[in-house]
Specification:
Chain lengths: ~425, ~190
């Protein structure tokens, strides 16, 4: 599908001149205007565009905030307060950035679960999926370092706890873990030195993300988009050009998403944060209850569910790394869970487990909370390592439609009784 | 007359040697860029501090800063000492004393956690050995955990009155730093 012939026609002499020297307009036209998309994409497919918006918004607001922020232990906390109180529109731009991080994660989790439900990780989209896992990892690292910058109590103790995870390597090679932690800190404790390097990396990583996103979109355009049926585009009738059909849906949901975004920015800017982060960092007092930002809670619950330091750290990282292998762990012949009557139940059990782990991660690590965190951690891994391979083999999928257009229009879509056939839609790109 | 034929062996050698030099040169440049992140000499300089213990009454505790870390000093009551001594070593998750003043293989008896002749004083780095939080238990109103010593609120590690891990995810006893009594009421840490 990526190999459909270019339909770009330069509209002016200047455009023609450019096209012969640097065909960038042709590339954009073929990738985002005339690109054939499955005609049955639902609104869950709009989150790729929303995520692109989130990344750009975070970079723009972040660059502006860096003009006013001071990455030192003495001034960081004050400069963030100054941004909120004194800098013209600083309150709004800071809220865009802080709330924007949460919105980014809401969108990425919907995007990931969309991929899991419709089997978007299956051949030939393995590289596309693995690039997505990498993007998720880099996003988490960026968000973690960004949360350190206001230098409040949660910033400080979050950094202390997470960097100390590496000290568990001491259990394998004595001394190595401590050496790594001191290397990360640049001292014997978390200090302004640590803050300064986190600021440098927090500024760098979004651009690494942008590069990964370009590779992600490239891989997407080689394999073509998946769709709710999981079928490939077989004929011209199965697809519509990206513009205006998919872009119209993207824009609609981007605006719905932005309404929610703006609601948080203007009415609940601190709702997703933690009150303790408005107390300046104090190395002598640990807050009674350290919790990470909400988007890390499921992984935090997995960390604490394992009663061994090294084991907990391994489980937490494994929870993300296991995603890399699911294109090969899933043995099903069909992609979409829509046609998988047994797996469907396991999928929703998995989604429930993730939400439950998120809830348990916000609770103290004791008593019944630990018990349930262990149950759901077990299912988190069992879903990928046991359910995916076994159910894929045992299950008989429902009958698949013959094509995407049959799934949309039914068998008799040429008859007068069927829904009106949007002839204009299928007529657009002439040769593919 | 023989023509000058290039010796292919000689050319291969030059290419391999040239690439090898370039690779080693590039690799050796990594070191300064890694090393710049490590603690510098200023941070490493072993600052030592002297602490006056005379105002700390029996059952009280103070926290002092040493090398950017909090150090817990507790003047233990006879009951606390007795509780720490009555625990058999086999019940301890970490059987090593973790005392920088003793050999690394010293067992974690209460005597080995303190200094001879000053067994009421417990001096240790107040950083949980799990993930680096500051355990509760220094102030009188703090929760002291199931064993009457310290309790780390982050992930629920309980330390006893000798600062030894008893329950929870922490792998090691709290570290006893290098310190000496320079008089009956004064210690030097570091």
């Amino acid at each position: 599908m990526a190999h459909h012939e270019s339909t770009y026609v330069p509209k002016s002499a200047t455009a023609k001149w450019w096209d012969e020297r640097l065909p960038i307009m042709r590339l954009m036209h073929d990738s985002f205007v005339d690109y054939p998309t499955p005609r049955n994409l639902n609104y869950l497919w709009t989150f790729g565009g929303i995520l692109t918006f989130c990344l750009v918004a975070q970079i723009v607001t972040g660059v502006v905030l860096a003009m006013h922020y001071q990455p030192s232990a003495e001034e960081a906390f004050n400069s963030v307060e100054q941004i909120r109180r004194d800098v013209n529109f600083g309150w709004m731009i800071r809220n865009f950035h802080a709330v924007g991080a949460s919105m980014f994660f809401i969108a990425v989790y919907i995007h990931i679960f969309r991929g899991l439900y419709y089997g978007s990780y299956k051949a030939p989209r393995e590289i596309l999926w693995i690039l997505g896992v990498l993007i998720f990892l880099v996003m988490m690292a960026t968000a973690f370092m960004g949360y350190a910058l206001p230098w409040g109590q949660m910033s400080f103790w979050g950094v202390t706890v997470i960097t100390n995870l590496f000290s568990s390597i001491d259990d394998i090679i004595p001394g190595l873990g401590t050496a790594i932690v001191q290397w990360l800190w640049g001292g014997y404790a978390v200090t302004g030195t640590t803050l300064n390097r986190f600021f440098s990396l927090h500024y760098l990583l979004p651009f690494v993300l942008a590069g990964l996103v370009i590779l992600h979109v490239w891989a997407l355009h080689v394999a073509g988009q998946n769709n709710p049926t999981g079928l490939d585009i077989k004929t011209k009738a199965d697809s519509v050009p990206m513009h205006p059909y998919a872009t119209a849906k993207d824009i609609l949901w981007l605006f719905i998403f932005l309404i929610m975004f703006a609601w948080f920015v203007f009415f609940l800017p601190d709702y997703l944060g933690h009150a303790d982060n408005y107390v300046e960092a104090n190395p002598l007092v640990t807050p009674p209850h350290i919790v990470p930002e909400w988007y890390f809670l499921p992984f935090y619950a997995i960390l604490r569910a394992i009663p061994d330091k090294l084991g907990g750290v391994i489980a937490m990282f494994a929870a993300i790394l296991v995603l890399v292998f699911i294109p090969w762990l899933d043995t099903s012949r069909v992609r979409s869970t829509k046609y998988r009557p047994i797996y469907k139940w396991f999928f929703w059990l998995f989604a429930f487990s993730c939400l439950a782990l998120g809830y348990l991660g916000s609770k103290p690590a004791e008593g019944v909370y630990v018990f349930w965190a262990r149950i759901f951690t077990f299912y988190y891994f069992a879903h990928f390592l046991i359910v995916m391979p076994i159910v894929g083999i045992l299950e008989t999928p429902k009958k698949l439609p013959r094509s995407i257009s049959e799934a949309v229009l039914g068998d008799k879509h040429n008859g007068s009784g069927g829904p009106a056939k949007p002839t204009g839609a299928t007529a657009a790109p002439e040769s593919r | 007359m023989a023509t000058d034929v290039e010796d292919p062996q000689r050319r291969d050698f030059l290419i391999i040697a040239g690439n090898a030099f370039a690779a080693v040169g590039a690799a050796s440049l990594i070191w300064p860029f890694v090393q710049q992140m490590n603690p510098d000499a200023g941070a490493k300089a072993l600052a030592s501090i002297e602490v006056d213990l005379s105002p700390v009454g029996v059952g009280q505790a103070i926290t002092v800063m040493w090398r950017g870390k909090p150090v817990f000093i507790r003047n233990r009551t006879p009951e606390e000492i007795e509780a720490a001594r009555s625990v058999p070593l086999s019940e301890l998750p970490d059987e090593s004393a973790r005392n920088d003043n003793l050999p690394a293989d010293a067992p974690a008896t209460d005597e080995n956690r303190t200094t001879k002749g000053h067994e009421n004083w417990l001096v240790m780095v107040g950083i949980c050995t799990h993930l680096g939080c500051i355990p509760k238990g220094q102030s009188l109103s703090d929760t002291k955990g199931d064993y009457g010593g310290w309790f780390c609120p982050c992930h629920g590690s309980h330390y006893d009155t000798s600062g030894r891990i008893r329950k929870g995810p922490a792998p090691r006893n709290l570290d006893v730093p290098d310190y000496t009594f320079i008089s009956d009421t004064k210690i030097k840490i570091g």
